[in-house]
Specification:
single chain; 401 residues; mainly beta; Methylamine Dehydrogenase, Chain H; 5-stranded antiparallel β-sheet
Length: 401
């Protein structure tokens, strides 16, 4: 018989290869058998510590793509981001006075940027950041975020939401029942400045105030006569209120401060000048629109530390109609003596200033890069900087505010 050496060697190689493969397979099976069985992954929720005076909420409207608005939860002592929730399309946020929850007013559409509109008020657990109730609203004012679009009363039992659907009104939300208890129509007036547990005030187009008492669950409205001229020297909507007693400091475009006691019969004290408090000449209003001097400006341009009565105002040098210009300094003013305490130069112009309400208070400013600056209020020294926390930081919310 004729032999084919090449075929014989190929067959031998094939047999040897199969034997090697078999040996490898046996070894591999043994190795696989020794490996531990992978357990099924289980998801969980990390629980944050209880709310503290230095754990703040920061509103980011994300102006270039506002549908992605958000609220950041920040540990201001460490300068650390703890979490984030959505605040879709010009949302607003307010916190329960004792930190038991926080509420976000937001708006969505069924087809993203169109379709059926839905206005919502989700309530969030402050430790898990999960939604505990998702209230559907009859409407809300879909405007640039302002603190006084969404506020809460002193004991946290009522949330007030300014609405323009279809006309100016404030929806009163019962936070225990999670429903709208009533709607108060306020033609010609806007926003809500809370006082105590049973009332709020709105500011009106004629320069006066509309005062709403909800005592015994029934709304009664009174009006005060105008105290400023909206055409010549309007007041900033972002003026601070001390909710416990309704004391409010309305700041005008020129830099006048109107101390006001909000109630069913709100009273306005004579105005004092921020510039005169600093030893400067009082700033002119619309009668001299091109006069350049130090003026208040920005978005959330002022904040009040309740216990000390110290008012913090963003200031810049400009003419009368520069009321939205970012501040280059924060001026700290004593509201009791009407005197300047200090001027704090800022590392970058800011449109926002905020403050915590404890005995070791922190101050907050922003810049146009989305950075958050954290300051020691008592020394006026910068402590930390959180680079690019967000895109458009509009305001902060602290415990008890």
């Amino acid at each position: 018989m004729h032999c084919f050496p090449a075929l014989r060697s190929g067959t031998a190689a094939l047999v040897l290869g199969m034997m090697a493969l078999g040996a490898f397979s046996v070894t591999s099976v043994k190795a696989w058998a020794d490996e531990p069985v992978v357990q099924e992954e289980e998801s969980d929720i990390i629980k944050l510590s209880p709310v503290t005076p230095h754990r703040i909420l920061v509103q980011d409207t994300v102006g270039t793509h506002a549908k992605d608005g958000r609220v950041y939860v920040v540990d201001a002592d460490q300068g650390k981001l703890l979490g984030m929730v959505q605040a879709a399309y010009n949302g607003n946020v307010v916190q329960d006075p004792r930190g038991r929850a926080f509420y976000v007013a937001e708006t969505v559409w069924s087809r993203g940027n169109r379709g059926d509109r839905l206005d919502l008020l989700p309530a969030y657990d402050p430790q898990t950041l999960t939604i505990t109730n998702d209230e559907v609203l009859p409407g809300r004012a879909l405007v640039t975020p302002k603190k006084n679009n969404l506020v809460i009363n002193q004991d946290g039992s009522r949330v007030y939401i300014f609405s323009m659907v279809p006309t100016n009104a404030v929806h009163v939300i019962d936070t225990a029942a999670h429903k709208v208890s009533q709607t108060v129509d306020l033609p010609g007036c806007a926003l809500a400045y809370p006082w105590g547990n049973d009332g709020f005030t709105s500011i009106c187009a004629d320069g006066g105030l509309a005062n709403v008492s909800l005592k015994d669950g029934k709304a009664s409205v009174t009006h005060t006569k105008p105290f400023f001229d909206p055409e010549k020297d309007a007041v900033f909507e972002h003026s601070p209120t001390r909710r416990s007693d309704g004391k409010t400091w309305f700041i005008s475009y020129s830099g006048l401060v109107y101390p006001t006691a909000l109630s069913t019969d709100s009273t306005v004290e004579p105005a004092w000048s921020i510039q005169e408090a600093a030893g400067l000449k009082k700033a002119p209003a619309a009668e001299a629109p091109f006069a350049k001097t130090w003026r208040p400006g920005g978005w959330q341009l002022s904040a009040l530390h309740y216990a000390s009565g110290h008012l913090f105002v963003l200031m810049h040098q400009g003419t009368f109609w520069t009321h939205k210009k970012a501040g280059t300094e924060v001026w700290e003013l004593d509201t009791a003596t009407h005197k300047l305490v200090r001027r704090i130069p800022l590392p970058a112009p800011a449109t926002m200033v905020g403050v915590t309400q404890d005995d070791k208070p922190l101050l907050f400013t922003n810049d146009d890069e989305g950075d958050l600056f954290i300051w020691d209020m008592k020394t006026g020294k910068q402590m930390k900087k959180m680079p690019h926390l967000g895109d458009d930081l509009y305001f902060t919310v602290a415990l008890g505010e």
